[in-house]
Design goal:
InterPro entries: DUF3305 (IPR021736). It comes from Parazoarcus communis SWub3 = DSM 12120. This protein is an alpha+beta fold and 161 residues long. The chain has one domain. Helix content is 24%, strand content 39%. The strands form two sheets. A four-stranded antiparallel β-sheet has the order 2-1-4-3, with no helix packed on it. It starts with a strand and ends with a helix.
Length: 161
Amino acid sequence: MNHFPIAVIMERRKLQNRWVDEAWEAVGVVPAFAGGSAEGEAGEPPRHILAEADRDQWLFAGFRIELFRDEADNYFLNMSSPLPKVFVMWRKEGALAEPKAVSASYGEAARWLDSGEQVDGIPMSREMADWVGDFVNTHYKPAPRKKVRRNDPLAQSRERT
């Protein structure tokens, strides 16, 4: 399987702040399997799944994590961290903050951040981490070590003569 279907949970917290009324963040990524609670199609309206006095949550279905061989180094960096994450890029459009893309690549998340996007890292489930880990074990090839030439002032003077 080259992709992992997921749904993203976005949360809005109400703030007691003079300048800002609310704060948004991606707080969960759940597997989306046929018949499961997170199943859905891309473009399907979000489901309001939690309503409390100080926070609300919405489930956005229809996303999937895809793995690509040219990103294997970045997946390796993610998997070798103490807490592997799924990165969710989102935008505030209208009344809701909506996830736009998901990835397991550190590099892709960094590119999103560099371009000014909102990105949250969500801890990866064990099942998802096993799947990405299998991909990394199959496709990651460490870069060959290069011989480092030390700066030897005597060697430079010998070359001139």
